[in-house]
Amino acid sequence: MASSFGVLFRVTTWGESHGPAVGVVVDGCPPGLPIDRSLVQRELDRRRPGQSRITTQRQEADTVEITSGVFEGASTGTPIHLMVGNADARSGDYDEMRDKYRPSHADYTYDAKYGGRDWRGGGRASARETVGRVAAGAIAQAVLRELWGVSVVSYVLQVADVRAALTQAPSREQVEAHITRCPDPTAADQMEERIDAARKAGDSLGGIVEALACGVPPGLGEPVFDKLDADLAKALLSLPACKGFEVGSGFGGVTMTGREHNDPFYMERGRVRTRSNRSGGIQGGISNGEDIVVRAAFKPTATILREQATVDRQGQETVLQPRGRHDPCVLPRAVPLVDAMMALVLVDHALRQRAQAGKVG
Ligand SMILES: Cc1cc2nc3c(=O)[nH]c(=O)nc-3n(C[C@H](O)[C@H](O)[C@H](O)COP(=O)(O)O)c2cc1C
After folding, report:
1. Which of 46, 184, 237, 270 qualifies as a cystine partner to 336, CB 3.0-4.6 A?
2. 26 alpha carbon to ligand 1 midpoint, in Å?
């Protein structure tokens, strides 16, 4: 199992949903940067379960402990170890799923691959694994901000068929203003109603998170296999329940002609700019200095509180009636995950650019 990610800013997540703890080791963080527990805790609070009635009701404070790599409020350059205890695991809720495979979850495939699995809460396939990513992502965001003035903002763009209408890049405050994390208040209210209705019906919904990275200097990305868009796609598609990735115009671009689609260049105060940004800030796998714009599609949550046809570990066809506390829509909680994965890719590529070219931008 590959649990590590990144080349120079390398993170390794560990832990299972119902084990004693989950966490991450961050190796390669530059020394002397202001990092403390509260900075990481802030991001974990955005991810934690039980934060509103439209998320899972598992109650976890997700209090982070930093046991290495930070001294007197700054990174030391040595590996940073971050750990969060699992407090509210109810493994009994999973008795029904011990032998029966949840449709569209990872139960069957983990068994097929490893010949066994930690069935309590989904083990490593649980979104609890992303605690480590969000903790590491908080550090990555701090490094990006501190060294290069780069910021990342993600938000819910769509839930089911309700789509936000946005005229400009939202702020973090606007994203956090609504429990759906959609910065369009009208669409956000409709999304909330739809998620609530799905929850009451024991069903689930999917949607899209859009992410912007602002202030990214030109030159990040390593053609040909570690192109910036290729690494962002891998980072986002490695998130649980993520099923689609777009950069810039994405799939919508196929209906345009080249004349309509091209981003014309112009000069602004000695800087090369583009008048439109259908490239999503990346050309040839390298950032061009415009905002990076990507979208990640998340499927409807697999565990629904409805009877479903399935098979068990013995190969018998059977019926599953799941219990437990699940997200009726993963989108609001996926936002800090997308922020984290974007930041991890960008900080890694900035450090790689600095190592090869001696400078960034
Ligand atoms: C924030 C977040 C919360 C999630 N919560 C649940 C959940 O409560 N129940 C569930 O069945 N899946 C949940 N998932 C998705 C599963 O972890 C995922 O569908 C499963 O590991 C199978 O992987 P796949 O969907 O990527 O194929 C969640 C995903 C995210 C990103």
Report:
1. 46
2. 24
Closest CA to ligand 1's atom 25: 241
CA count, 13 A, side-chain hemisphere, 101: 19
- Residue of minimum CA distance from atom 21 in ligand 1: 125
Does residue 56 have its Cβ closer than 6 Å to ligand 1? yes
Name the nearest CA neighbour of 287 among 210, 344, 209, 232: 232
pTM listed for this prediction: 0.98
**Residue 301 in contact with ligand 1 by CB distance below 6 A:** yes
Helix, strand counts (H, E) of the chain: 8, 18
Torsion of Cα atoms, 344 then 347 then 351 then 354, to 10°: 150
Q: What is the CATH number of domain 4-357?
A: 3.60.150.10
Kindly report, residue by residue over 3-26, the tens digit of the pLDDT: 999 999 999 999 999 899 999 999
Show me where the domains of the chain are located.
Answer: 4-357
